[in-house]
């Protein structure tokens, strides 16, 4: 299903007419007159032309399905944008409103003139309130106002789309990998070795003035063939916690029934609890490869295992014009978290260096690419995380490898963390 936002045009009056039914306006005090609908249509055109608003028709696979837009207003005395939307009944329940609103939030962030987007759905409009929550809006209160001869009781939802700004802030760690050796007081150059062994999971890497290079080479063997097939990985992490051999205690329990095969020393290298975490790295454009930067719970308590996916980029989803970057919160095995992950399209060559960051507070998590806001998840992890920095080579169905394009090299210029401002 392809959801697109098309700028409002003089031909779009029928979209408003189809939305002007008792069913569609039940939370707005009922239908407008035909003249009021035509005035609304003309207002959309005027506001688009003046730049005061950006109104769109929602298309699903090329068929008109509703309307959405944002316009200038004031909230608590400050200039903001306000959002509104409607989706025709035959398209409801299919994720159309959610997809359209996510696209709209990215347009507001790119607009840059105002950094707060607000929405005022009726308190009894369960669908729109749930939509705001899923899109990362935060509930800021409620209110009541006269409306079409009655009263409209509404909730106040707000989404902060301001860019990331660390200017003037001092990083508590600014890792540039400039030395000839990896700083193993911070980094652990093995991929969850407790489930396999240090020999099987050891990273292939180099450091120097250009930063870090993590490599998968022709000689790189699968890290745990009986557990993970022919998956190959080169990986650094900044912590290590697991139990004795034979136990089931260990970080990153990626499948059930895992047993510690090789006991490991506890390593508390670079652990962070709240603040800004940022990596500057380059993706790899190859269909067999994925690169990722995942802060995950240190997991010294079994439930403390959630993941902040700062960037997850499959080489099969990258071309010369741009690519898809996965961001969001993943529960893994933490029952207190909900899955809130999505892929964001980023224009430009992702095989060049880009900044991927998260701003993590006790109440919410905001994600950024090159300083630009791309997602908010209104939940949080409240325990220390370690960093997982990876390049993977996935096995092919026919068992072959593209050895002509080896090695696969993940280049990382820096990793930084900042305390909460």
Walk me through what this model shows:
By secondary structure, the protein is mainly beta. The protein is 14% helix and 39% strand. It has six helices and 24 strands. The chain has helices at residues 13-19, 34-50, 96-111, 126-134, 198-201, 225-228, and strands at 3-7, 53-60, 63-75, 78-87, 116-119, 138-147, 150-160, 173-175, 205-208, 211-216, 232-237, 239-240, 267-268, 275-282, 289-297, 307-314, 318-319, 322-330, 340-347, 354-360, 365-369, 372-377, 385-393, 408-418. The strands form four sheets. Strands 8, 9, 10, 14, 20, 21, 22 and 24 form an eight-stranded antiparallel β-sheet that branches. A hairpin with a 2-residue loop joins strand 2 (53-60) and strand 3 (63-75). The chain is elongated, with a radius of gyration of 24 Å. The model has no long low-confidence stretch (mean pLDDT 95).
């Amino acid at each position: 299903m392809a959801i697109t936002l098309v700028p409002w045009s003089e031909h779009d009056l029928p979209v408003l007419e189809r939305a002007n039914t008792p069913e569609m306006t039940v939370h707005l005090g009922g239908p407008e007159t035909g003249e009021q609908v035509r005035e609304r249509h003309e207002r959309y055109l005027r506001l688009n032309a003046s730049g005061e608003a950006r109104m769109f028709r929602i298309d699903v696979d090329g068929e008109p399905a509703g309307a959405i837009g944002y316009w200038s207003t004031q909230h608590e005395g400050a200039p903001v944008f306000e959002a509104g939307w409607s989706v025709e009944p035959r398209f409801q329940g299919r994720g159309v409103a959610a997809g359209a609103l996510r696209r709209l939030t990215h347009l507001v962030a790119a607009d840059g003139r105002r950094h707060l987007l607000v929405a005022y759905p009726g308190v009894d409009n369960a669908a729109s309130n749930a939509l705001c929550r899923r899109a990362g809006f935060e509930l800021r209160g409620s209110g009541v106002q006269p409306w079409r001869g009655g009263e409209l009781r509404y909730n106040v939802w707000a989404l902060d789309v301001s860019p990331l700004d660390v200017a003037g802030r001092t990083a508590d760690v600014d890792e540039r990998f400039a030395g000839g050796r990896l700083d193993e007081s911070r980094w652990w150059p093995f991929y969850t070795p407790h489930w396999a062994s240090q020999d099987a999971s050891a990273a292939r890497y180099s450091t120097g003035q250009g930063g870090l290079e993590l490599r998968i080479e022709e000689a790189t063997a699968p890290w745990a063939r009986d557990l993970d097939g022919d998956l190959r990985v080169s990986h650094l992490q900044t912590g290590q916690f697991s139990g004795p051999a034979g136990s089931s205690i260990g970080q990153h329990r990626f499948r059930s029934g895992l047993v510690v095969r090789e006991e490991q020393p506890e390593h508390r290298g670079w652990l962070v609890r709240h603040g800004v975490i940022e990596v500057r790295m380059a993706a790899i454009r190859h269909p067999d490869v994925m690169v990722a930067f995942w802060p995950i719970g240190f997991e010294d308590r079994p439930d403390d295992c959630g993941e902040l996916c700062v960037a997850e980029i499959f080489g099969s989803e990258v071309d010369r014009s741009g690519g898809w970057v996965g961001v969001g919160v993943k529960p893994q095995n933490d029952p207190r978290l909900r899955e809130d992950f999505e892929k964001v399209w980023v224009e430009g060559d992702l095989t060049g260096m880009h900044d991927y960051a998260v701003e993590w507070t006790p109440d919410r998590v905001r994600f950024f690419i090159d300083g630009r806001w791309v997602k908010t998840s209104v939940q949080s992890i409240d325990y220390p995380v370690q960093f997982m920095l990876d390049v993977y080579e996935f096995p092919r169905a026919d068992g072959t490898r593209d050895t002509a394009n080896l090695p696969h090299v993940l280049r990382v210029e820096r990793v930084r963390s900042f305390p909460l401002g």
